[in-house]
Amino acid sequence: MLNTLLGPTTRLVAGTASWNDFLAYLNEGSITSAIIETLNIVAVTLIAGGIIGLAIGVILWGTRKGSLFENALVYRVLDLIINLIRPIPFIIFLAAAQPLTIAIIGTSIGTTAVLCPMIVVCGVASSRLVEQNLLSVDPGMIEAARAMGVSRWNIITSVLIPEALAPLILSYAFLFISVLDMSAMAGYIGGGGLGNFAIAYGYQKFNPYVTWCAVVIMIVLVQIVQLLANAFATHLLRRTH
């Protein structure tokens, strides 16, 4: 009778029911589905946002004063837009972007809906990372290529990006962590994946085993991606030096 009255609180203290529920989620494949959904969300966001960010980052680098496509107006407009979006916490941006998400997708709830704001934030974040990494390339190499008559587009594709490739890989690995973090926060609007799984089956049902399982899985994912990025970047640096 007392257990019935206390409900979730007793389950949390005792732990037995929570552990049994956790094992049931394992048997149902709920955790596996959440992992796959998270990887899909992160992959789509990184590919789409990463490509957009790469393009904007190259434009930012190219339109700076003294660069290949110097254009103060374009640079200032892009710089202003990025500086306006970057400081906004993602959970607040999710709410602020609801009208745009509804206009594009037709809903502001669910996995598909969360991709829109995630891609925007990822594109903005990656564009600044790309710009900073491109600025680290030796200007002398760019000037030498221009003196040899290499076209501006070929300078970007054959000199600029290859020279900055190793730090770009590390930057995108760092971006992976941010996108994974965003996918977890997206769980608050039913965005799916590990974030939604931890909230729906862990936090709301007073089951700490589910919450900590989601935490451990995210840590493992981050470690794997970081190790791969470090190895790839090191290989590129050895090959180019």
Automatic annotation (TrEMBL):
Keywords: Cell membrane, Membrane, Transmembrane, Transmembrane helix, Transport. SUPFAM superfamilies: MetI-like. It is found in: Cell membrane. It is a multi-pass membrane protein. It holds the Pfam family BPD_transp_1. Its main location: membrane. The chain crosses the membrane at residues 41-61, 73-96, 102-125, 165-189, 209-233. CDD domains: TM_PBP2. Residues 35-229 form the ABC transmembrane type-1 domain. Belongs to the binding-protein-dependent transport system permease family. This is ABC transporter, permease protein. It comes from Fannyhessea vaginae PB189-T1-4.
